[in-house]
TrEMBL record:
<keyword id="KW-0436">Ligase</keyword>
<dbReference type="GO" id="GO:0004592">
    <property type="term" value="F:pantoate-beta-alanine ligase activity"/>
</dbReference>
<feature type="binding site">
    <location>
        <position position="150"/>
    </location>
    <ligand>
        <name>(R)-pantoate</name>
    </ligand>
</feature>
<keyword id="KW-0963">Cytoplasm</keyword>
<feature type="binding site">
    <location>
        <begin position="144"/>
        <end position="147"/>
    </location>
    <ligand>
        <name>ATP</name>
    </ligand>
</feature>
<dbReference type="GO" id="GO:0015940">
    <property type="term" value="P:pantothenate biosynthetic process"/>
</dbReference>
<feature type="active site" description="Proton donor">
    <location>
        <position position="34"/>
    </location>
</feature>
<dbReference type="GO" id="GO:0005829">
    <property type="term" value="C:cytosol"/>
</dbReference>
<protein>
    <recommendedName>
        <fullName>Pantothenate synthetase</fullName>
        <ecNumber>6.3.2.1</ecNumber>
    </recommendedName>
</protein>
<dbReference type="GO" id="GO:0005524">
    <property type="term" value="F:ATP binding"/>
</dbReference>
<comment type="similarity">
    <text>Belongs to the pantothenate synthetase family.</text>
</comment>
<keyword id="KW-0547">Nucleotide-binding</keyword>
<feature type="binding site">
    <location>
        <position position="58"/>
    </location>
    <ligand>
        <name>beta-alanine</name>
    </ligand>
</feature>
<feature type="binding site">
    <location>
        <position position="173"/>
    </location>
    <ligand>
        <name>ATP</name>
    </ligand>
</feature>
<keyword id="KW-0566">Pantothenate biosynthesis</keyword>
<dbReference type="InterPro" id="IPR003721">
    <property type="entry name" value="Pantoate_ligase"/>
</dbReference>
<comment type="pathway">
    <text>Cofactor biosynthesis; (R)-pantothenate biosynthesis; (R)-pantothenate from (R)-pantoate and beta-alanine: step 1/1.</text>
</comment>
């Protein structure tokens, strides 16, 4: 497995590759969710690149950029064992040299949900993703459904800016009790870890209600809110039942719907979602 730490090393290596390249973008501290994307890329592409970069521009000033978990040696071993061909591990100075002054500003897809809760987040995401696409030039890039809005923003960017890459979105990988795998789960103490199951339980409740015929989206949001509010360690950022395409909040449930939520468990902010097709 090739480990590339600079843009010049990356470009030299990339030039030599003739076959199809799949790309998995990550912020490291890898888990089975990330590795499922690597495996899918390996199954579909001749070469699989993984990037590990904790991107400062997608964190707000009061967010956890400094505390975000990092363990590069462990990540590299996991990627080697999974069979990635190359890992791009740039430093922040490599990605944002002094004077860098151009950004990608996503449109409406980025305004709601995570975009409303985290101003500037998707501008940081879209900018770094476009840079990584330009550097690595993959034919396919793999994203997780766990970050459904991120995948939607990237799909729209690629379509609007004619970026020659195919976007694949893979299912959310969960722990045995339903908690979506996330690097941030490592912040949770045992009581918080237990409380964190409330996210998945509330998504399951929404699924049951809607599959049982409930069509009033506000009732679904209310029932989810009640369930989460009964958990003393949980504080809701948002609970959403939205059109899966536009991300507009629904009054009446039509499909495909994206049921999503952001909840703080203690000081840890977690997100999750299900799509009802
Ligand atoms: P992150 O390192 O959290 O920025 O995630 C990198 C990529 O892995 C993104 O496309 C995420 O959507 C995806 N991902 C993160 N967690 C999961 C999960 N539990 N299941 C599937 N994909 C995931």
């Amino acid at each position: 497995m090739k480990v590339l730490r600079s843009i010049s090393a990356l470009r030299d290596y990339r030039k030599q590759l003739a076959g199809s390249v799949g790309l998995v973008l990550t912020m490291g501290f890898l888990h089975e969710g990330h590795l499922s994307l690597v495996r899918r890329s390996k199954a579909e592409c001749e070469y699989t690149f993984v990037s590990i970069f904790v991107n400062p521009t997608q964190f707000g000033p009061d967010e956890d950029f400094g505390a975000y978990p990092r363990d590069t040696n462990r990540d590299l071993k996991l990627l080697e064992n999974t069979g990635a061909d190359a890992v791009f591990l740039p430093g922040a100075g490599e990605m944002y040299p002094p004077g860098a002054d151009t950004v990608v500003v996503p449109g409406k897809t980025a305004h709601r949900l995570e975009g409303a809760a985290r101003p500037g987040h998707f501008r940081g995401v879209a900018t770094v993703v476009l840079k990584l696409f330009n550097l690595i030039q993959p034919q396919r890039a793999y994203f997780g459904q766990k970050d459904a809005q991120q995948a939607a923003v990237i799909r729209k960017m690629v379509a609007d800016l004619d970026v020659p890459v195919e976007i694949a979105v893979m299912p959310t990988v969960r722990e045995g009790d339903g908690l979506a795998m996330s690097s941030r789960n490592t912040y949770l103490n045992p009581a918080e870890r237990e409380a964190a199951t409330v996210l998945y339980r509330s998504l399951k409740l929404a699924e049951e209600l809607i599959n049982g015929g409930e069509r009033d989206a506000e009732i679904v949001r209310q029932r989810m809110t009640e369930l989460i509010s009964a958990e003393p360690l949980a504080h809701i950022d948002y609970v959403s039942v939205a059109d899966a395409g536009s991300l507009d909040e629904l009054a009446f449930v039509i499909r495909p719907a994206l049921v999503s939520l952001a909840v703080r468990i203690g000081r840890t902010r977690l997100i999750d979602n299900v799509t009802l097709t």
